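Entry for calcium ion complex. Fields follow.
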Amino acid sequence: MRHTIRVALVAATASAALIGSAATATAESAAVDDKRYDVLYTSDPEEGRLKLASQGTYQEAITGGSIDAKSLKANHGKEFLSIRVDLHRLGSDYGTVGGSIKLNGGVDEDANFTAGVEGDEAWAEVYPSETSNSDTYCASWSSTGRVKASGKAGVGGYVQLYIPRSCLGNPNQVRVGAASFMYPFLVDAARKGATVRQQAQASREALVEDGPNFYVDPISAKYYGAGSRDAAQVIQLTPWLSRN
Ligand SMILES: [Ca+2]
């Protein structure tokens, strides 16, 4: 299976060179809107074709509707990189938001993040991408370099992260892309009583390893469709956000 979330996130760097490359690096914040009913789904990991969940079975449409992203907002502040993803609905305990962070004008992806809401508690973690030499790791449960996470599940759900810039090596520039996910195996894990941290770990491993069936909503202002295009090509990164 190649059309995994890993592909969606890691290979987002490829499209990043095309989207927003002409943007001036003066902004500190940016937003990317996303369309409704555009959650993608694959029922056949080997085939890897992504379909619109809203045009699938009733169950697929319902499941896809539980992670339908609305927008990404990023702000490169003095102390924190804030990332907020709003959704039409965020499934409690299993809806996951994740994405890419690139630093200082680089081509390669530098870090990934995943976040979600369990019950009333939001969780988040930030970790080096596969292509990064960094060993930085920060999470909402870290004792140092703690990521502040807040959020709400259900209708009008959102996840808000405040990532210490020190977690990212105090970059001068960042750009961010994101997607929402739903892994059926995480639902199973939650039902079996997996802790937030165990779910985060499972989610993170799914970003690296070839994953199981999944739902994904790449946040992009332009994309609405399915077919053979993979999610990697449609995640839209913000312009470079400067903090000098
Ligand atoms: Ca959407």
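NOTE: The chain is about 15% helix and 35% strand.
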